[in-house]
Every structure is written in C-alpha cells, then in structure tokens.
Amino acid sequence: MTQNHIGRMPLWPDLAGYRFGLGFRVLTDEGKSAHLGSPGSYGWGGAFGTFFFIDPKEDMLGILMVQMQSWNHLNIRPDSMSLAMQASSTNGMTEMWQMKRH
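The structure assignment produced for this chain is given below.
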C-alpha cells in the first residue's frame, strides 16, 4: 500500500517528488519535494485541511485535524509537517531543511 503503484505518471505540481500507492501519497524523490521527509514516507490530505503523514525512517507520524474551508493560502499542511520534523530533528534533518529553504 505504501509503494509506488503509478510508475512515472505525472502528478500536479504540489506533489513533486511523490507517487501514489494504494491509498497514500508516497515520497520517492526528496530532492524534488518541497516538503521535509524521508523517501518512503507516506500520508494523505483530506478535505478542509485534515492531513496525516508517517515517516518510518524517522519513526514519526503527524496528524493535523482542522476544519477550514479555503485553507490553501495558509500552507498549514507543509508548515505543520516541517515544524514536526524540525522539533524532533537530528542535525541531518535540520541541514536538509536549511538546504531546501535556499
């Protein structure tokens, strides 16, 4: 369920670096992704801003439970994921985040 099942099928730009498994988005290329995470991390975003991610390599999961219409302008999903990763990061993840910002 958490392996790439769509091959190289194109996705919309917000999901650069991701592919889809059977029900989840799966990070396959961290260099193309705008989000922090390890290859193999997976998750899903639902309607009105709900979101979850699981990063097996970092032994981490995150759940965001919000109900907001028109939440896209807030960047709440990527910001919450980045904050969670930074809060528990080792130097390696912190350095990766800094590289992606520049």
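Interim note for the steering committee: The mean pLDDT is 80. Residues 76-87 form the longest helix (12 residues).
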